[in-house]
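Thread amino acids onto this structure.
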């Protein structure tokens, strides 16, 4: 699970050398290979030369079919240094998280926390009420169990998991099949545990035999019928694994192969019924603390009017936002979107996500972001129905630079060649260490938006979005990086 990011680390200055490192989270959409822009020599670029230099990159024949949207402006003004289709809609992928986290910080404040509570209902009945804390893990279950033990709870007749605080589908209906099969497409609900994923390890055996399946959670193993069609191959043979599950959470199919001398492979998969997963794990934790549990239920009944016996709070929002942006964590982003509905509870028949989107739009509009510049259906960018203009991203970045949460927001972004999804990019280039930006990648989509502190020019904000490209993501990403390196070399002349 991810390391915590201290508030002190988050509140770094806005200078040119900023470094944040975290352990990569499992629920992320982007796999970023080591890509170094082809243009690595340091040179000076005058503003008058910028347009011609950028055009030379994006007008290459291999990008003839791609759509480019670009906007570059000084941080402190709306003067345009470069613009191309900046007001048009593009599929943003994970740069959507810039809007979600900006609204969350502005509306909820950097110290906002999400509380998980256990209430006593009398006669040995306990209600555990979740409110969508994405950081909640087995460690927090242990904390709750120990608190209950200290309160004199020795037996639980009924453990009732209340999963009703967050309303709506646990996965967005527009998310694609391959996404909800992957750990980065984990479901979102009130009672989140271990980022709503479970793990198995696959080990090679003798040649010709199926791979051995080892479960990290024995209780989870009992939920599945495993169809193991994998095989162990001879040494030094290629390895590939494909694990899928049906939507009802009954059948787990394992295909592929591992070579005899290969390392065990860890596979993370989203749980199907997260509230039941939470309930099973909490029961096991209570039993481990010598508090027997007779029955468990997932129910809409709750004990919110009863006495709170135990509680755990999430880290402050400053840390949740960092986990969201640095490693592009979809589950964290979706949880923060729903947390916005704390300010405006959903209307009848309205989901928490839709209520959160309304609060987001109102918040961003108040900050000066044109509400016609984006159209969102989720908070992570995983949906292809999301639409955002480069201009809307630049307006958000500029507005957040003036916000009381400016330092926290800025520090939540990956740093070129240093952290998160930019750790392997811009190495040994003029952009190294001076670019803080959010990445976005999905099939046919590559985007990047953020800040540049150039040594010889005023600070800038930029948004680069590429859609409808048939080129491999690494090729488009390298072209984007070339443009950012040009911006890093801008100077007054």
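Threaded sequence (493 positions):
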């Amino acid at each position: 699970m991810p390391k915590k990011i201290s508030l002190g680390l988050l509140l770094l200055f806005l200078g040119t050398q900023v470094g944040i490192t975290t352990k990569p989270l499992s629920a992320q959409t982007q796999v970023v290979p080591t890509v170094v822009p082809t243009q690595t020599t340091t040179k000076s670029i005058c503003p008058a030369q910028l347009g011609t230099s950028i055009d030379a990159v994006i007008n290459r024949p291999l990008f003839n079919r791609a759509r480019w949207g670009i906007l570059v402006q000084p941080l402190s003004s709306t003067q345009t240094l470069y613009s191309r289709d900046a007001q048009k809609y593009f599929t943003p992928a994970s740069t959507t998280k810039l809007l979600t986290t900006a609204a969350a910080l502005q509306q909820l404040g950097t110290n906002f926390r999400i509380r998980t509570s256990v209430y006593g209902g009398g006669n040995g009945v306990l209600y555990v009420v979740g409110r969508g804390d994405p950081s909640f893990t087995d460690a927090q279950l242990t904390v709750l169990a120990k608190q209950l033990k200290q309160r004199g709870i020795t037996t639980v007749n009924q453990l009732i998991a209340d999963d009703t605080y967050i309303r709506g589908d646990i996965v967005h209906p527009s998310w694609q099949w391959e996404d909800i099969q992957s750990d980065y497409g984990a479901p979102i609900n009130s009672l989140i545990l271990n980022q709503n994923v479970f793990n198995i390890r696959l080990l090679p055996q003798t040649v010709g035999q199926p791979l051995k399946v080892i479960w990290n959670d024995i209780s989870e193993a009992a939920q599945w019928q495993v169809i193991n069609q994998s095989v162990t191959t001879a040494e030094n043979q290629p390895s590939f694994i494909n694990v899928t599950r049906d939507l009802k959470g009954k059948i787990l199919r394992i295909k592929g192969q591992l070579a005899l001398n290969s390392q065990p492979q860890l596979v993370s998969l989203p749980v199907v019924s997260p509230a039941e997963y939470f309930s099973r794990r909490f029961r096991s934790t209570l039993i481990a603390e010598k508090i027997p549990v007779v029955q468990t239920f997932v129910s809409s009944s709750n004990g919110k009017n009863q006495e709170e016996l135990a509680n755990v709070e999430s880290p402050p929002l400053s840390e949740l936002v960092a986990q969201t942006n640095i490693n592009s964590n979809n589950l964290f982003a979706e949880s923060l979107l729903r947390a916005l509905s704390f300010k405006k509870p959903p209307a009848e028949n309205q989901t928490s996500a839709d209520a959160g989107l309304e609060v987001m739009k109102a918040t961003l509009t108040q900050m000066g972001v044109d509400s016609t510049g984006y159209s969102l259906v989720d908070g992570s960018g995983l949906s292809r129905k999301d639409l955002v203009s480069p201009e809307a991203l630049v307006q958000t970045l500029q507005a957040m630079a003036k916000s009381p949460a400016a330092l926290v927001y800025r520090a939540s972004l990956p740093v070129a060649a240093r952290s998160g999804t930019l750790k392997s990019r811009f190495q040994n280039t003029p952009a190294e260490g001076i670019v803080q930006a959010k990445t976005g990648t999905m099939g046919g989509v590559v985007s990047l938006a953020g800040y540049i502190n150039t040594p010889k020019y005023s600070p800038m904000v930029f948004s680069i979005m590429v859609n409808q490209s048939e080129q491999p993501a690494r090729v488009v990403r390298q072209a984007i990086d070339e443009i950012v390196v040009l911006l890093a070399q801008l100077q007054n002349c």
